[in-house]
Design a protein that fits this description.
Layout: H1 4-9, H2 11-41, H3 67-95, H4 100-122, H5 129-151
Length: 155
């Protein structure tokens, strides 16, 4: 079992914890962006969400799909699909004893790719901007998984 003081002294783990916190905060921010767009554009998908704007048939005019809301929602969904694997693999990778500079490169590339992906999704920027950001982040996670499997796990 790992002693907690060892984790606090592990620079790679501390770096991972820092970058994981930033990327999770960014993902949480997208929830707020989606809610903001829903409220300001009055674009809801559930009748109970529109109850404050009216009753009965009046509610139906607020049940519609808005492009900005959908873009923010899809960006958030894409974060969920990519950040969760990064957290799991990144945690194992950070505990496997990699070189600090290599680990920082992985973490920084992933964070930069996810931030750029969100910007490219919300503005929107033309392709291949979003695709490149996606593949860089995905590649970083695959790289950490490969290094972990190659060096530390028994298969």
């Amino acid at each position: 079992m790992v002693d907690h003081t060892e984790l606090i002294q592990n620079e790679v783990f501390l770096a991972f914890a820092s970058y994981a916190t930033i990327v999770l905060s960014k993902m949480m921010f997208l929830s707020l962006v989606t809610g903001f767009y829903r409220m300001t554009r009055k674009a809801f998908v559930n009748p109970e969400d529109c109850a404050v704007f009216g009753k009965g048939e009046e509610v139906k005019k607020y049940l519609w799909t808005d492009n900005r809301v959908e873009r923010a929602r899809r960006a958030h969904l894409n974060d969920l699909e990519n950040i969760v694997p990064f957290l799991g693999i990144g945690l194992l990778y950070s505990l496997s004893g990699p070189d600090l500079s290599t680990a920082l490169l992985h973490f920084r590339l992933f964070l930069g790719a996810r931030i750029y992906h969100t910007i490219a999704y919300l503005i929107p920027l033309p392709q291949p901007n979003r695709a490149l950001a996606f593949y860089i982040g995905y590649g970083v996670t695959l790289s950490m998984a490969y290094r972990l499997l190659k060096s530390k796990l028994y298969l």
